[in-house]
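Let's practice the habit of predicting before peeking. Look at the sequence and jot down your guess about where helices and strands might fall. Then scroll down.
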Amino acid sequence: MTIRNTVAIDLGASSGRVMLASYQPQQQQLQLREVSRFTNRLQHRAGQDCWDLDALEGNIRQALAQLDAEGIHLDSIGIDTWGVDFVLLDAQGERVGQAVSYRDARTQGLMATAQQDLGRSNIYQRTGIQFLPFNTLYQLRALREQQPELLDRVAHLLLIPDYLHFRLTGELNWEYTNASTTQLLNIESDQWDEELLAWAGVPASWFGKPTPPGNRVGYWTSPSGQQIPVIAVATHDTASAVLATPLQDANAAYLSSGTWSLMGIESPIPVVHPASLAANITNEGGATGYRVLKNIMGLWLLQRATQELNISDLPALIAQAAQQPACRSLVNPNDDRFINPANMCQTIQDSCRERGMPVPETAAQLVRCIFDSLAMLYRQVAQELATMHGRPLSHLHIVGGGSQNHFLNQLCADACGLAISAGPIEASTLGNVGCQLMALDAVSDIGQFRRIVAQNFPLQHFTPRDNPDFAAHWSQFQSLSQLPKELCI
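Done guessing? Here is the structure:
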């Protein structure tokens, strides 16, 4: 059978990549080739933190043109990105306003207003989505209040991957897994919730019917004239990452580790009840069923801190951090002060100072503080997920770029008391590819694709060690979770 060539465009909040995947069905061999990798940085425009979509699109088109020039026959193209952010279009398909980032401060205070107006339990029962201050629901209310002059010009709202679909094909689409992140989709009907749209102050006419992953949006015409199908994969990057996670059994959990860390379990039904609301558990759409998970601020803290410190040798710094005393300083990574501070290192130090902890001064101390704090938060979330699941977690699979951090993986195993498998690194890319291969009927189902991933991308394994530091400082960390509630999950 002919080799199937698919292109996975995987955009994260800090970088993007275009990958060529070649799959040989008979041998079930899957290979990835990096065509292009580029940074994705916020731009400050007219007082707002925005995405540079023109630069992202330019990088994507350049990589696709390169493959076309090489004469490679492509079977399909897929795009996945982060969630919640959107682009407004007028009737002619031109952008209205900027593509404002979720890290912009425009939504400040609006989540509390929504809970006061509509009721926290009511919003959760309608959507099953966790309360994060930058959800699309609050971004749209901010748009209505702060830029009302834009509204009459808008004909359509597209989330970021569907905007890029539109730019490649000229066709409109609203893919389900990304739509589910907005806190605007009704969990019973899987349609846009009119009560929530009314509170946000935007018309339902901006939105089309959500479509399941795997539908063919349209075609991209290559410079040589090829008509390449563009498939709406599981366009939320975490949904794609989970699709490619070779979970061992029904009690295994996953941790997608990158700029954000997302820890969760798969479930055929949503988990929406008072206990899940109290724990702020989210129910996002997956390629099949639901991703019952929680957001953790993740390696964003490390990325920002190392940028500020001008660190060029991260492995050496991690090795130095490993030699520091454990749990000397702890922060709550989900404190909303860490969303986009002017100075991450200073903000971490201020948090420790306020709680009467030793203030991390050196780069190694700061990094050790970040890693210990993340491991503690992983432990807390793992316990909450086990409670929601009704059974102990059997295993934890860490995927994504953060799975390369062996020191943090071991801390996670120690803190959670769980055996860990780490990899694949390019999980979002692989899930993107898997969805395309299933749409092309080259792979039968998710189970088969996960076996292909495990066969072609070996995993690293970590066994939990007896680490008394986490037990000794557990109550101290739990007290940190009583800090600002807005992002505390």
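How did you do? The mean pLDDT is 95.
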